[in-house]
Amino acid sequence: MLIIDTLLAIRQMPYYKNVQSSSGLVHGGGGHEAAICSVLIEQGYKKWEKWDTMPDKCRFRNLVRMREWIDTPSLSSMMPVGTFVEQPFGTNDAPDFYIKVTDNFIMPLEAKSSSNYIPMWNSGKPKPDFVYAFCSEKTDKTTLFKGESILSYEQSRMINEHIEKHRKDDEELNYKLKQLDINHRGISYYTRPMIQQSGGADFTNYFTHPNREQDEQLVFDWVNEKIKQT
Questions:
Q1: Same domain, yes or no, for 26 and 120?
Q2: I need a surface site. Which of 38, 114, 132, 183 has the fewest CB within 10 A?
Q3: Which residues of 11-33 are buried (b: 16+ CB within 10 A; e: fewer)?
Q4: 137 and 157 share a domain?
Q5: Buried b (16+ CB within 10 A) or exposed e, 83-116
Q6: Sequence-ordered alpha helix ranges (H) in 43-152
């Protein structure tokens, strides 16, 4: 099966730096995303050429609907099966790849890279139905997992509610700051979410974690199940 063979090939990849967040790279190429792109092509996937040649105005209109493709794959009928889009929402927004596996299955794939054993999430929390390919310089290896293996649906809901609460607090604060802006400088405040993991290696080392094998297997089981549903 093409997508399973592709994921197995990605899991065998060594370490590549994420060129979006750091300079230099290991093993040649153009960084982690470029290396994964090469694997996709080697395994038989093709870039969706129409997307690459689409005028910016048309692309922007389609971006709004593209975010719905994961839950409503029928909206992706213009994208051929066996093709992929690299960084559909730009370099600063996940996922790094949309892969059209079947007519009813768009797989979001995100590349994560770190010098240590744990990926950096910053303000972007793990997405439950994203597949992550994480490589570590320390191990020179790659592991796969779904976002739900890192952050549960209930935890994700709680974080979303917390962020929304603080957004409203920010609005109130900024209204008051504007009223007190005697220097006419337009000072405002923004609370930025920061997702972290802690608790020592038992919690944070993705390569020795006791759930590693089952998390990798979940990716393959989930993909197979999605394909069966088509």
A1: yes
A2: 183
A3: bebebbbbbeeeeebbeebebbb
A4: no
A5: bbbbbbeeeeebbbbbbbbbeebbbbbbbbbbee
A6: 49-53, 56-66
C-alpha triplet 228, 85, 195: angle, nearest 5°: 85
> Which phi and psi angles does 12 have, rounded to 5°?
-85, 0
Q: Which two tokens stand for residue 155?
A: 């935890």
> Do 90 and 158 fall within a single domain?
no
Cα distance between residue 101 and residue 80, in whole Å: 9
Give the number of domains in the chain: 2
Co-location of 83 and 158 in the same domain:
no
User: For residue 223, which of 131, 152, 113, 92 has the smallest C-alpha distance?
Assistant: 131
Range of the domain at 96: 2-150+197-228
Rounded distance, CA 11 to CA 215, Å?
13
Same domain, 82 and 156: no
User: How far apart are alpha carbons 139 and 51 in whole angstroms?
Assistant: 36
Peptide bond into 95 cis (omega under 30): yes
Could you report the per-residue pLDDT of 84-120, keeping only the tens digit for each? 999 888 888 899 999 999 999 999 999 999 999 999 9
* DSSP at 122: B
What local confidence, expressed as pLDDT, does residue 28 receive?
A: 46
What string of H, E and C letters represents the secondary structure of 142-166?
EEEEEHHHCCCHHHHHHHHHHHHHH
Task: For residue range 11-48, list pLDDT tens digits in order.
Answer: 999 999 876 544 344 444 569 999 999 999 999 999 99
Query: Starting from the edge strand earliest in sequence, which strands make up the sheet with 141-146, in order?
Result: 46-47, 83-86, 97-102, 105-114, 131-136, 141-146
Could you tell me if 85 and 48 are in contact, meaning their C-beta atoms sit under 8 angstroms apart?
A: yes
